[in-house]
Q: What sequence folds into this?
């Protein structure tokens, strides 16, 4: 039973990683860049949600909606100001800019909201579902997190495979030049990708802070890095890969904490990543490109 | 004659310090197949990419249906009815045949089913493979898909960049038959080719390019008969 408990915690943590990893993987798939500022968008989402709910007493769901709106705009603005001018630049320049943007967001948060940790309000209460005569207890936050992740996954998959815009995103990710020749506005499509990724980051921020209710300007860094790892683990550029990678990373991390050592859990996580990449360099669901020419 | 569909006037295009296109001018009139022939590196693809707005001329102008394309973004140019089938086909390999065609219709607001029908009638092979990913098609099928995809945008001018490249002779004939068919049904076509013999045999007019310049022009028959063209491009 305790095993099942750990497993559910792992899936819950992994769900948050998966939602964040979607932002990394979608942006990578289309803009071919690693947006290291993505983790800090989570933090901004957390703060917006915190102020909306704690200071202004808004309904938590309204708070999350406002956070999504703010993060979506933030994502579009960051892309427009920092990355779009570098579209033709070497990828190293873009990478360094993304790292710079990450620090910029963290320091702005430090100025605005100070380094004192804020205690995140319990968005949906601290209650729990009791199963098997109370032997298994699953908190409401956990259930909400897993359910949210599943809903996002289904909607996003349908969006990418069925809608006109989703197909345009896939076309851009394969060949931007050819996409332009189809009449697709590539810049608008990239912008839309950042918007979606950042909106999801806001949800991840609210969920993360509900599960671990301490909010600081650096709150987004480590989950950001881990979610990036999850995206690589699953195969960067692949949406199902981000989902799978996120869940697996969460489960491995919780199991490592429980059965090996809580101090070494991150080391175990990255060791597993290294092994996976040695065996499957493109990640679990990464595309091994094989096309007839 | 009426106004040309496409008018290229004295354009100069540079790649950094390389002067790739040196002041070329030509026109395409409605209902014509015009071909640009020339050896590898003569600047044919550069010319098409400049017309499509992917490259910008340093001087000179490109106008389509009487309107200058100087300030028009590439995706807007497609909307105006100018489609390009790029060199090397560039189909979306991980998308299905049908999705590729849908992408071709990206600028269209209606009539998708009808346009798909037309393309599938023109290329029955594509219909058989509509749910396959484009990466699994043979080279000839991919060329058909690239052409079908461009036709989905209901172009007023269809530009084809080296449609024969890398195809077996029998497939080359098949592709050129289709181009000739499209022409008979009223399409206006700008065809870029290294295969001068094939291109000139179906073209209304042709321009011969050499190192960024147009060196000769004439009707398809005139160029086929021309001594200079025979020597340079038709193997004597």
A:
């Amino acid at each position: 039973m305790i095993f099942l408990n750990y497993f559910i915690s792992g899936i819950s943590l992994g769900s948050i990683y998966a939602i964040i990893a979607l932002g990394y993987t979608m942006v990578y798939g289309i803009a071919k860049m690693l947006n290291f500022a993505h983790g800090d968008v989570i933090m901004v989402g957390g703060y917006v949600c915190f102020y909306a709910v704690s200071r202004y007493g808004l309904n938590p769901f309204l708070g999350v909606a406002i956070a999504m709106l703010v993060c979506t705009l933030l994502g579009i603005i960051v892309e427009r100001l920092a990355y779009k001018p570098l579209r033709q630049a070497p990828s190293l320049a873009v990478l360094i800019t993304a790292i710079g943007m990450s620090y910029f967001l963290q320091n702005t948060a430090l100025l605005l909201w100070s380094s004192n940790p804020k205690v995140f309000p319990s968005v949906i209460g601290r209650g729990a579902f009791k199963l098997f005569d109370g032997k298994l207890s699953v908190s409401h936050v956990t259930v909400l997190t897993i359910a949210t992740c599943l809903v996002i996954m289904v909607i996003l998959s349908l969006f990418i495979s069925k809608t006109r815009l989703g197909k345009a995103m896939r076309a851009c990710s394969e060949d931007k030049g050819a996409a332009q020749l189809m009449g697709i506005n590539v810049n608008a499509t990239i912008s839309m990708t950042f918007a979606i990724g950042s909106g999801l980051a806001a949800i991840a921020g609210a969920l993360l802070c509900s599960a671990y209710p301490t909010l600081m300007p650096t709150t987004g860094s480590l989950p950001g890095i881990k979610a990036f790892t999850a995206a690589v683990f699953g195969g960067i550029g692949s949406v199902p890969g981000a989902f799978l990678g996120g869940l697996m990373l969460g489960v491995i991390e919780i199991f490592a904490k429980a059965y090996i050592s809580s101090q070494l859990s991150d080391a175990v996580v990255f060791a597993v990543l290294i092994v996976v990449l040695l065996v499957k360099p493109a990640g679990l669901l990464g595309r091994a490109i094989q096309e007839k020419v | 004659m009426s106004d040309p569909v496409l008018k290229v006037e004295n354009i100069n295009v540079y790649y950094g310090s390389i002067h790739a296109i040196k002041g070329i001018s030509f026109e395409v009139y409605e209902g014509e197949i015009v071909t640009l022939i020339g050896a590898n590196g003569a600047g044919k693809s550069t010319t098409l990419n400049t017309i499509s707005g992917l490259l910008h001329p340093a001087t000179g102008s490109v106008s389509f249906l009487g309107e200058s394309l100087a300030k028009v973004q590439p995706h807007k140019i497609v909307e105006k009815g100018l489609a390009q089938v790029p060199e090397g086909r560039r189909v979306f390999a991980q998308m299905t045949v049908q999705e590729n065609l849908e992408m071709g219709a990206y600028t269209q607001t209606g009539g998708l089913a009808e346009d798909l029908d037309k393309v599938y009638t023109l290329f029955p092979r594509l219909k058989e493979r509509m749910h396959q990913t484009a990466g699994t098609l043979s080279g000839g099928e991919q060329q058909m898909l690239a052409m079908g995809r461009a036709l989905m945008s209901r172009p007023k001018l269809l530009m084809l960049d080296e449609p024969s490249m890398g195809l077996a002779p029998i497939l080359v004939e098949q592709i050129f038959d289709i181009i000739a068919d499209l022409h008979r049904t009223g399409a206006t076509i700008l065809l870029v080719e290294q295969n001068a013999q094939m291109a000139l045999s179906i073209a209304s007019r042709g321009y011969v390019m050499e190192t960024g310049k147009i060196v000769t022009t004439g009707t398809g028959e005139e160029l086929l008969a021309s001594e200079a063209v025979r020597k340079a491009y038709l193997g004597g």
The first helix of chain A runs from residue 2 to 31.
